[in-house]
Please model this.
Amino acid sequence: MCAHSLQGIAVMRPNFLKSFTIIAAVLLAGCPPKSEVGGGGGGNAANSGGDILIGEYGSLTGAQATFGQSTHNAIMMAVDEINGTGGINGRKIKVITEDDQSKQEEAANAVTKLISQNGVLAILGEVASSNSLAAAPICQSNKVPMITPSSTNPEVTKKGDYIFRVCFTDDYQGENIARYAATQLHIKRAAILTDVKNDYSTGLTTTIERVFTSLGGQIVAKQSYSNGDSDFRSQLTAVRTQNPEAIFVPGYYTDVGQIAIQARDLGMKQPLLGGDGWESPKLIEIGGKALEGSMYTNHYFYADPTPVVRNFVQRYRDRYGAIPDGMAALGYDAAHVLADAIKRAKKLDGPSLRDAIAATRNFQGVTGTINIGPDRNAVGKKIIIEEVKNGQLALKATIEPTASATPTATAAQ
Amino acid sequence: MQAFLQNLLNGIAVGAIYALIALGYTMVYGILKLINFAHGDVFMLGSFVGYYAGRFAIAHMQDTSGTWTSWFVAGAIMLLAMMTCGLFGYLNERIAYRPLRNAPRIASLITAIGVSFFLEYGGQFVFGPDPKFFPELVEKHVLQFGGITTTNYQLIVLVVAIIFMAILQYIVYGTKFGRAMRAVSFSYESASLMGIPTDRIISLTFVLGSALAAVAGILQGLSYPKIDPLMGILPGLKAFVAAVLGGIGNVPGAVVGGLLIGVIESFVSGSRFSNFTPAIAFVILIGILLFRPSGLFGKYEAEKV
Model:
């Protein structure tokens, strides 16, 4: 402390410090956490007659808005199909949707409201793993089954025995990205750019790094960013000095698009490689030419010629005028898996429905055959690798479940 | 060495934007002893005016790409954003701060936070909370100088920022208005006794600061096209730190502080410690408050007691 410099501003400093403390306090208190629900599992009373209430929470607005919108559209389409063919044992499904604005605390609030106020029987959502991780413990403690269509972080379903997913996990996805890069693209030196504020990104980074190095590859630069950043040039400059052959960017589409643009601005020509967080109709709109030659893993390919996919894409386009992305396909599958389980459930309450979902076997979905494994993850799903080519998504490879190490084993722990 | 120069350039480009915002903080503080926390959100407002005007221009005159016309249009958009934000700054001062001129300073400060929330959440309501992508107003080129790579956009940011800082320097030290501004900053009561229309000077200071924030908003939109209604929070706080670092109330100090924060951030995010980048500005703030609370160019040594 140098006392003489403090002396001079004795008049202004107390006010100034006080001001700053107040600002800090207000900013930190901006999003007060709501208390958790007290009502318990009794909320399903509303399901004793009339419509069957299903809750959905998702990022309809905010940084990952297309995730939530695609999922929501597909869920509504699935539910209308089910209701159009007589519903479930004569009862119609009614979906109550809550927007979580792509924020974790809002996801927790949304699920609390769906359970305690609306008394829903089951919950569908989220896409972003961080949001699912915030909501899952609330579903678990209220014994309300939750199916996440597309949260791939392994931790999500470890939150408890009421939490399920119909997609593959990041252990499986990360392994396949890394393996494809090392064995098919023959990449020896790669860099990783991680979003440190994102559970999905940090989880995927760990797996990619582990598998890529175990296959003889070398991670020559590791840099991080926080979602919502707009300047990635410094991180990319650090990557550039190591001159890797490819850059893994296991993040979400808004950031990926900008990272690609800034990498090209810095004269970097390497392809970017990523996971299903890239999947969004906005990806190419944002990144444009900068993404040419970049690749990512996905859950399904929209131009897949199999009848089940063609049929789904056709109906989605007729209804919404857009090509459904991977999130839509998984949202659709999640809704149908849930409806199928409700049909099979002995009683319409949380525990019976939970058992019915856990018993899902050989369900033919748009994203492939869905089997719910012992860890409540969909096991043995195929992985699609897509490439941005001439400003469009092109199918690069399909990895069948048997091609790599057993998904059941990797998904387990 | 190459990476060093590249990081330096990137840092200056980011820092120039912080500096433009910091100028608004420091001028208002200098004259009113008020930290206008809504200032970062005025920056956001400028970006959105530029976004809508830019989209309008691109939709209505498709034949201008890569010509002088596109530069003219970009200039007109910047002027429009400056006028809109200037008007907002005027109204903000007139409606929110002037009635509190004689209230305790903490009341104005809380009002500033209120205005800030109004802009952030009003912005989410009006513009929607989804990120938007700022149009490319002029054609983008990648440029190479020896080992460092840049774009014409980064150079535009630097040139425009320097031009506006020079204009501000002229206004503050070379015009009658600037002299009046410095007089009000020196002593509000004496200035008004000397016949200086203090209220008008304060209004104009807000207009000036807000117009500079609008310039920063447009430059931000050009170089980092993702904009959203909450985009002003972090740059606003960092520019505030820049103003404190330079010595709040000190105009050249704000420029130096802004550039320093930009460059330091750039070097940290280019290092192994890139996950500490968001914290670095605040570490600097704590350091400066502990060891040199008057800032690098502080001028409060002789403040009356």
Summary: The longest helix of chain A spans residues 65-84. The CA atoms of residues 345 and 353 of chain A lie 5 Å apart. Chain A touches chain B through 48 residues (CB under 8 Å). The first strand of chain A starts at residue 52 and ends at 58.
